[in-house]
Design brief:
Order of helices and strands: EHEEEHEHEEE
CATH class: Alpha Beta
CATH superfamily: Gcn5-related N-acetyltransferase (GNAT)
Structural class: alpha+beta
Helix content: 25-40%
Strand content: 25-35%
CATH topology: Aminopeptidase
Largest sheet: 8 strands, mixed
Number of strands: 8
Shape: globular
Length: 150
């Protein structure tokens, strides 16, 4: 089935799109991963934050957030990377990262990209040019590691 990739500046998000994003983030991070944490962190609607969404038959199946380098100390920051349960097993994870990096480059040319990866996903991110940048740490009880792509 066809995937509709949409990347929007937060000021262009419709309320239905924003609701779908928040719902899916809660489903995956809070319910599925059993991580009680404050997902709404005041960055979704600030600065030049952009939201990359993959829609399939009017369902949000993949998502990531791009935080602008001005608000993040110099790097574009990719976060909240997820694939809905219904979208898994279709190769959407790699396409999501390709699309995310493409939009980061279009919006902030030649700026390094940083992300906080779940430690077990280092290999996935390495395939997209990321290298470890720092020591492993626990975030919400899950091992994470900083990774950067120059």
């Amino acid at each position: 089935m066809a995937i509709d990739w949409i990347c929007k500046h937060h000021t262009d998000l419709g309320k239905e799109q924003l609701y779908a994003v928040m719902r899916l983030r809660s489903e995956v991070f809070v319910v599925e991963q059993k991580c009680a944490y404050q997902d709404l962190d005041d960055q979704d609607l600030n600065g030049d934050t952009c939201h990359l969404m993959a829609w399939q038959d009017d369902h949000l199946v993949a998502y990531l957030r791009l935080l602008d380098p001005e608000s993040q100390g110099g790097d574009v920051v990719i976060g909240r990377v997820l694939i809905a349960e219904a979208g898994r097993g279709q190769g959407l994870g790699h396409e999501l990262m390709v699309q995310g990096l493409k939009h980061a480059q279009e919006n902030w040319p030649d700026v390094p990209v940083y992300l906080s990866a779940q430690a077990h996903l280092q290999g996935y991110y390495r395939k997209h040019g990321f290298e470890v940048a720092g020591e492993e740490y626990l975030e919400d009880g899950i091992p994470h590691i900083g990774m950067r792509r120059s």
